[in-house]
Amino acid sequence: MKVLWLQSAGCGGCTQSMLCSAPRSLFDELSDAGIEFLWHPALSLESGEEALAVLEGCAEGRLAFDVLCVEGAMLRGPNGSGKFHLMAGNGRPLTEWVERLSRQAKWVFAIGSCTAYGGLSASTPGNPLEACGLQYDTDTPGGLLGAGFRSSGGLPVVNIAGCPTHPGWIVDTLEKLALEGLSAADLDEVGRPLLYADQLVHHGCARNEYYEFKASAEKHSDLGCLMENLGCKGTQAHADCNLRPWNGSGSCLRGGFACIACTEPGFESPGHAFQQTPKLAGIPIGLPTDMPKAWFVALAALSKSATPKRVRDNAVVDHTVIRPAVKKAGK
Amino acid sequence: MKRIQLGPFNRVEGDLEVSLDVEAGQVVSAQVNSPLFRGFEQILIGRAPEDALAIVPRICGICSVAQSAAAAAALADIAGVTPPPNGLLAQRLIQSTENLADHLTHFYLFFMPDFARSAYAGRHWHGDVAARFMAVKGKAAEPVLQARAHFFNLIGVLAGRWPHTLALQAGGTTKAMTPAERIRVLALLREFRAFLETVLIGDTLESFASLNTEQALLAWAEGRNADFPMFLRAAGDLALEKAGRATDCFLSYGAYGLFESGLWQPNAAVDTLKSAEITEDPRHAWLAESSPLPPAVGETILDAEKSGAYTWCKAPRYAGQVVETGALARQVVAGNHLLRDLVGRHGGSVTARVVARMIELASVLPAMEQWVRDIVPGEAFCYPATLPESGEGVGLVEAARGSLGHWLSIKRGRIDRYQIIAPTTWNFSPRDREGQPGPLEQALVGLPAGDGALPIVQHVVRSFDPCMVCTVH
């Protein structure tokens, strides 16, 4: 399966993240699954005219490829001209290249939240860049290619959202496609592969005991749950970050900071400071996605009153001050 | 005279176009164009000041932590807070992990594949180099991606993930290292040291880092079986120690408490860094015209139809001078003997820039081992930082590819102005209003170009390890 990769208005971080693929090194992992990069801007030898020849061949249908991966938002401005990103050495807008190549690709993957929904690149006040995702403007279908777009393989754009994406989300989606095929049933309501978007970041969170007892962190580096005060959206964000660790053993929560829901459309403009939980009458506004509010409030009050001293004290310091008790054998 | 447009200039971070005017097979003039605009300085305006810590890492997927560190430093400057010793050590460890990993990524994935080009077939070193460094398919790819991924596990432990962590804060870091994690991090550093010593350098880090002259370096490399000595053989054959000289005026903001800040020029003592000497000139950028302004009062206003403009990058200048930044600048300013010797003999060059990255890999990793041992589990990693309603701050740090500055002002509790000068903004700057070309524009003049020319231009451009996505923030 041949993959053609383009970068536009993004940070390149999804490629950098993908290169951290583990446990096998990325190229071996992909080549054993029969996946190769026809051209990738950060990795391939071909530069300048050689690279343009590959791209032109693909756009004209002379050079076969399977998956078009795009990394970065689409800049349609100024005034629809696409001039905010012209292909180097060629002078044509990247948006035009992406439209031409999308017509030839069997499948189109949006790599990262910028490409899927516009992301941070689309959050300049007033959006003078006219930035958008491949098939979405935030959560509204449309974007560069239009709501009705289907690649010749019969799918809408596959949105591997995340800022950045986890290497496993890209690699596993490519391998699922290469080895077993991908269908509309494998994607969620906003085009994300269910192989990682059928979970919440909350699932497997190492701070779960603090969450259960609503023993909350009050300041940076505290061990407690980050939901009540520090802006964590792990109970609302779709991704398997705490089941599929990052960089060996990490996740945002394990790193001591809030999940900012970077896989969700519109995460970049939450309407409040990222690291503060917005509250109404002392109760966080953003409650777990599918939990009735009254129940949440009642349970929170109950669990707070039942919090063990160990959990309450450890929550507000940066290292364990009270260890879990050791029970005597047979008790 | 013939004009050649080179682009897309790949294996750099982001999109780059280089225009060369060529006469009799040589470059007589060069223009560097960053063809993408991103708008981060506007995105930040009106946000809560701490939001910068979530937003600025996303300027760049390869200097992500460096961007965080600059924002954290600027916020710390405003809040008047200094992180506790553990917090400073953890910040340094996270930042140096990214910087060293970037040096590795640059050497293996971005820079060396050009030496595998068929243009060099028949050179005595070409067969070995092509087998090892051919893009994607070379034999080095597997071990280097493995070493890189494992090294980044250190950020997994200390900062949750890479890129785009929120662990760096004005008052320190959000993750206190546990005693168990300290053991694990030391193991990761040993693993990376083993890779550097056996695969990349072919010697202990300490003995390589102690080389002090070009002559000693070449004698050391003779017959040595490792990837960096292999580069030195190719570079010697192509005389890359004489290719790619820019202004020989080097800027560094200083790094990790190991490398001093300052400005170095030939035949002068290192000058103390005076950040008030920094200005940005928008003359040749598609941005509204103004006189060169210090970044603390700088503006970024679009003017996509401006005549005479050829890039989205402003032209930063230090006291009006064109300066180069990066690992070579950092080491020359800091007084490294080997790099001072190389620059003294030939000026800045492709070879000197690559050697400087290797010297940093060899000299920073032992420091990292010491920083881990210096961390005291149980003591604080983060102090609270209270920001005033209004204030101004500056964060000056070193990314892998050079000096990175954030200038931030807040008013009524919101970001009022945010100006960023990234390393590649310096190195790939366009001409200023005096007509002075930027460092790369100068470094390309005189190189062979056009039909049948060796791809020396490719090496010179990539020797700066450009990051275009930062440049056009």
Secondary-structure topology with pairs:
The complex is a heterodimer of chains A (331) and B (473).
Chain A: E1 2-7, H1 13-18, H2 26-32, E2 36-39, H3 48-59, E3 67-71, E4 74-75, H4 94-104, E5 107-111, H5 113-117, E6 131-132, E7 136-137, E8 140-141, E9 158-160, H6 167-179, H7 194-197, H8 208-212, E10 279-280, E11 283-284, H9 293-305, H10 309-315
Chain B: E1 2-6, E2 17-23, E3 26-33, H1 40-44, H2 52-55, H3 64-79, H4 85-111, H5 126-133, H6 141-159, E4 168-169, E5 172-173, H7 179-201, H8 205-209, H9 214-221, H10 227-237, E6 250-252, E7 262-264, E8 278-281, E9 315-318, E10 324-325, H11 327-334, H12 337-346, H13 350-374, E11 391-399, E12 402-411, E13 414-421, H14 423-427, H15 439-443, H16 456-463, H17 468-471
Parallel strand pairs in B: 6-10
Antiparallel strand pairs in B: 1-2, 2-3, 4-5, 6-7, 8-9, 11-12, 12-13
Helix pairs in contact in B: 3-4, 4-6, 4-13, 5-10, 6-7, 7-13, 11-13
Side-by-side strand order of the widest sheet of chain B: 1-2-3
Unreliable residue runs of chain B = none
Order of helices and strands of chain A: EHHEHEEHEHEEEEHHHEEHH
Total number of helical segments of chain B?
17
Strand order of the largest sheet of chain A: 2-1-3-5-9
Strand content of chain B: 5-15%
Number of separate domains of chain A = 2
Report low-confidence residues of chain A grouped into runs of 5 or more: none
The CA-CA distance between the termini of chain A, in Å, is 60 Å
Q: What is the assigned CATH homologous superfamily of the largest domain in chain A?
A: NADH:ubiquinone oxidoreductase-like, 20kDa subunit
What oligomerization state is this entry in?
heterodimer
State the total count of DSSP E strands of chain B.
13
Q: Pairing-aware structural class of the strands and helices of chain A?
A: alpha/beta
| Top CATH class of chain B | Mainly Alpha
CATH topology-level name of the largest domain in chain A: Rossmann fold
The name of the CATH architecture of chain B is Orthogonal Bundle
Shape of chain B: globular
